[in-house]
Amino acid sequence: MLMKLKYFLLICLSFGVTMGQFWKLNTPSERDLFIMEVRSTMSAGICYKQVEAKVNDPEVRMRTVSFCCPGYKRNRLVRHAVKCDPICTNDCNNGICVAPDYCECYPGYKRENARCIPFY
Q1: Which of 29, 50, 63, 95 could cross-link 105 (Cys pair, CB 3.0–4.6 Å)?
Q2: Distance (Å, rounded) from C-alpha 39 to C-alpha 108?
């Protein structure tokens, strides 16, 4: 009985140490906040079309299919849904590609000749 009580106290004390811990998250930087805001307003770049579905039923059934619009490419890292990313032919250094061939510059940078350059 005494041995069971020791194990019970040991288990209770072990679990009690970790239960009251809190984690402080890092405060997002100005750039992180900018990226989140820009991405929240970006177009999804997803287009839809109606196609005939193959069914055994004699009447023709139409089905809606989603695909990436022109100027967008499918993001293969997202497997459970269609996610389309815009394509920028020029490099989007110091910015985010938000639409086909359009970069939104990070804070502290300005758009000049389709590139993001620092303010001077």
Answers
A1: 95
A2: 18
> Do residues 52 and 62 lie in contact, with contact meaning Cβ atoms separated by under 8 Å?
yes
Domain boundaries, the chain: 30-118
Rounded Cα gap, residues 120 and 109, in angstroms: 9
What's this model's pTM, rounded to 2 decimal places? 0.63
The strand ranges marked E within 6-120 are: 46-53, 61-68, 72-74, 84-86, 95-99, 102-105, 109-112, 115-118
Tokens 């970006």 belong to which residue? Answer: 42
d(CA 31, CA 108): 10
C-alpha distances (whole Å) from 25 to each of 22, 28, 43 are: 10, 9, 29
Take residue 18 and report the two structure tokens written for it: 């970790």
Q: Backbone phi, then psi, for 91, in 5-degree steps?
A: -65, 140
